[in-house]
């Protein structure tokens, strides 16, 4: 676990201030041997104060270093041709998607007189996230899931506070519900900025996670002590905005670590953990608000965020391969005194104009968004996402106003969503293991759209759930008081309420409430 600590924010800080003496990287350890391809480049561009000795078997040098006691012993490694051969045999078992990843992550370093590309030392380089042990990858997966859970729970944990906010600030339920809607809008807008930033090699994923998480945690305090409803709603938007990297980039961090054939299993674990946030939020927050006051669910969110921040500060490593290689190139330039050692991303960005860097980092996602397949998937996910969040306002209305559950008990029906989430995930895991993997092993390639077959089957359950909920929402005794045609009107109206009211809880709930009050 030392290497995990070394690559965290705290570990990098300790390594930097100690000049590599504590928590050293491989190239900072005494006795480390420079790869042969870097030796050749070093010999070709060695500065005057370096002594270069060449023999038929090895190339050795004695560079001027920041630490005078460090002495490099150089020996040749496996030839480039042999390395290419091993890589080519490895590629044969991969899909075209993975081939691109291998091209990025596993090419040997190419030597030239003017510049040398610093890449992985060999195909088993332990700094490559794809080569991490299974235990380490599962551990980091757990950290990313913790981060996502800590942010995702912030949406629904707010709902038990709504009655107290209505009383405290003397506002309507629609206004109070905006705290939920604005939070969701915030972490819908945030990825447009933070996700591209995490793809810039000089920044990476971990700094974006930690900086935004710190702001997310601190912004809970202005919400708790808000003097008016305007401050509360504004801060709810910004907490969602700064919490968004966990939701948008978490999948990218997982993809950095797992091969494409095993990636769905890791994403399923991450998705289920993330879904536990809004599902458990009303339960955790409901009992707190019931026994204390409306601020306590928000205090719980603050404590969860503080816990996640402290854990991740010490243990969350960088997973972006380009960032890892860029930092390696910087260390090697300092260690060897050779200014011609660069990572591939440094060379690429040095040849781009600032406008091109801006386009690639910030504008490319918008270009991809209008692709038909991506656009259709986003529209469908937006609809199902809106329906999902509709329950967080509809359940308290139904189980609180109609069935007279208290704040704590009104959150328990959400456990049904957790059960179906686990069942659906189990079905997908089985389908991927018994159907997708055999095809991949046989052909070496999977059409990405073929994974949507399960979604086609599951899509029918979304409108069915609305119809069932609308039909069964009132007690059986309501039939004695309401004509059948009025009672049957509830579920089509519930369905139509979603597209009619922009699919946001703040606008859907007044529609549902108006139906209920006309039938009372």
From TrEMBL:
Residues 140-520 form the Major facilitator superfamily (MFS) profile domain. Keywords: Membrane, Transmembrane, Transmembrane helix. The chain crosses the membrane at residues 138-159, 171-194, 206-227, 233-254, 266-289, 301-318, 373-392, 412-431, 452-474. GO terms for cellular component: plasma membrane. GO terms for molecular function: fluconazole transmembrane transporter activity. It is found in: Membrane. This is Major facilitator superfamily (MFS) profile domain-containing protein. It is a multi-pass membrane protein. InterPro entries: MFS, MFS_dom, MFS_trans_sf. It comes from the Eukaryota. PROSITE patterns: MFS. Its main location: membrane. The keyword Glycosyltransferase does not apply. The keyword Transmembrane helix applies. It comes from Psilocybe cubensis. One of its GO terms (biological process) is xenobiotic detoxification by transmembrane export across the plasma membrane. It holds the Pfam family MFS_1.
């Amino acid at each position: 676990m030392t290497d995990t600590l070394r690559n965290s924010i705290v570990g990098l800080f300790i390594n930097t201030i100690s000049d590599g003496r504590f928590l050293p990287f491989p190239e900072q350890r005494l006795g480390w041997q420079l790869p042969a391809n870097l030796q050749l480049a070093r010999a070709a561009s060695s500065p005057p104060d370096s002594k270069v000795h060449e023999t038929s078997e090895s190339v050795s040098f004695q560079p001027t270093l920041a630490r005078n006691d460090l002495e490099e012993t150089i020996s040749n490694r496996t030839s480039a041709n042999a390395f290419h051969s091993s890589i080519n045999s490895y590629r044969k078992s991969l899909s075209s998607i993975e081939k691109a990843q291998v091209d990025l992550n596993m090419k040997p370093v190419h030597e030239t007189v003017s510049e040398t590309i610093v890449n992985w030392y060999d195909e088993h380089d332990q700094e490559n996230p794809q080569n991490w042990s299974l235990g380490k990858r599962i551990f980091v997966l757990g950290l990313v899931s913790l981060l996502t859970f800590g942010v995702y729970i912030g949406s629904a944990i707010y709902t038990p506070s709504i009655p107290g906010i209505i009383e405290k600030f003397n506002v309507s339920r629609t206004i109070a519900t905006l705290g939920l809607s604005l939070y969701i809008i915030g972490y819908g807008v945030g990825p447009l900025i933070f996700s591209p930033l995490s793809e810039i090699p000089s920044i990476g994923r971990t700094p974006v996670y930690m900086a935004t998480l710190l702001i997310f945690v601190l912004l809970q305090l202005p919400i708790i002590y808000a003097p008016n409803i305007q401050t509360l709603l504004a801060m709810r938007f910004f907490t969602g905005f700064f919490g968004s990297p966990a939701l948008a980039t978490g999948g990218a961090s997982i993809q950095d670590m797992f091969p494409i054939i095993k990636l769905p299993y890791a994403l399923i674990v991450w998705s289920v953990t993330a879904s536990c946030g809004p599902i458990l939020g009303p339960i955790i927050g409901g009992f707190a608000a019931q026994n204390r006051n409306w601020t306590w669910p928000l205090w719980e969110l603050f404590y969860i965020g503080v816990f996640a921040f402290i854990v991740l500060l010490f243990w969350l490593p960088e997973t972006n391969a380009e960032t890892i290689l860029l930092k390696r190139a910087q260390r090697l330039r300092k260690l060897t005194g050779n200014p011609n050692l660069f990572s591939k991303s440094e060379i690429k960005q040095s040849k781009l104009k600032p406008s091109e860097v801006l386009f690639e980092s910030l504008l490319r996602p918008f270009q991809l968004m209008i692709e038909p397949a991506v656009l259709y998937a986003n529209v469908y996910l937006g609809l199902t996402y809106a329906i999902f969040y509709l329950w967080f306002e509809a359940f308290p209305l139904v189980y609180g106003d109609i069935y007279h559950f208290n704040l704590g008990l009104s959150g328990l029906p959400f456990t049904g969503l957790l059960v179906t989430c686990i069942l659906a995930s189990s079905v997908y895991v089985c389908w991927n293991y018994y159907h997708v993997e055999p095809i991949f092993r046989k052909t070496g390639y999977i059409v990405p759209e073929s994974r949507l077959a399960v979604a086609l089957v599951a899509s029918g359950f979304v409108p069915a759930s609305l119809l069932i909920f609308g039909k069964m929402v009132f007690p059986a005794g309501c039939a004695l008081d309401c004509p059948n045609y009025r009672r049957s009107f509830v579920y089509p109206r519930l369905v139509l309420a979603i597209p009619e009211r922009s699919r946001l809880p703040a606008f859907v709930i007044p529609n549902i409430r108006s139906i209920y009050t006309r039938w009372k």
